[in-house]
Amino acid sequence: MGRVTIVEAEAVGGACVVADCVPSKTFIASSDVATSLRHGSALGINGTLAGRVDVDLAAVHARVRDLAKAQSRDIGDGLVSHGVRILNGTAQLRTGNPHVVEVEGGESLEADIVLIATGATPRVVRGAEPDGERILTWRQVYDLKELPEHLVVIGSGVTGAEFASAYLAMGVPVTLVSSRDRVMPHEDRDAAEHIENVFTRQGMAILSNARADAVRRIENGVRVELQDGRVIEASHALMTVGSVPNTAGLAEAGVELDDRDFVAVDRVSRTSVRGVYAAGDCTGVLMLASVAAMQGRIAMWHALGEAVQPLRRQTVAANVFTDPEIASVGLGQSSVRRRVRCRPVR
Fold this sequence. Notes:
Blueprint: E1 5-8, H1 14-18, H2 21-38, H3 57-81, E2 85-88, E3 91-94, E4 97-103, E5 108-110, E6 114-116, E7 120-122, E8 135-137, E9 151-154, H4 158-169, E10 174-177, H5 189-201, E11 205-207, E12 212-218, E13 221-226, E14 231-234, E15 236-239, E16 243-245, E17 276-278, H6 289-303, E18 317-320, E19 326-329, H7 333-339
Parallel strand pairs: 1-2, 6-17, 8-15, 9-10, 9-15, 10-11
Antiparallel strand pairs: 3-4, 4-5, 7-16, 12-13, 13-14, 18-19
Helix pairs in contact: 2-3, 2-4
């Protein structure tokens, strides 16, 4: 039996449990209830006045935090019950010997196998730095005490679309700024266009082919300046413009990074250093919690000498929690078209 130590800077379960997937889906679940109540009269349920729904945002956020903390505790208790040692703090691989993990506070851990699972952080755009009050990342929205009077969501990928959909369902006027010609440009066009049409019918303002040049604080809100000269004033801005990997110091330890600073891994999660593996968002391989978990399992099976099947990206299932939702399995239509060159029929 191997001895296992986990070094965690925040809470067991990482960003997925504490700040990203679990909190956001809990928040979206509350917005789903608001949608059901708003349309209850069509089902013979009259619980609202003139279609309005009152949202106690403090209660919503308290539930978000409580569920995240509870899941983190459950994961931690399960690990400890199986003999895993958990150290709170940060760590880095020793330069010249990446099999020595140096933990803050002076402890050094010698390891036969190392798994890097440091995740990623919301990307910050110069001129639109979050302040945690009016200009927010998706990890800061749970500090709001009241619903925004008008929310500008900058970035129309999955995260931006999900939060835009949830706030719209809660009765918040939403403006979605998309740098592309449609929302969720990486999803199949017909599905994404259907979602966009639903958003528009529900009153969301969608600005396509628009890029935010700056987001500035003003007296009672924010001023979003677009590159084409348009200006949007709102109470809050939510930045959902992607993530950057937490990989500082790895290159100095000899771990190869790609041109975007993600850890370069093969299909069984190996890095360029023998015995050092990586999994999750720090690798940039399909940034989904389910993929991160599978990468980690494959890495450990491989490290223990088990026969493993490499990660099959073509069969990964994914879901976008907008209203309505988008579900997909494997490669999308656009990806298939890029990969397959059709020969003319004669």
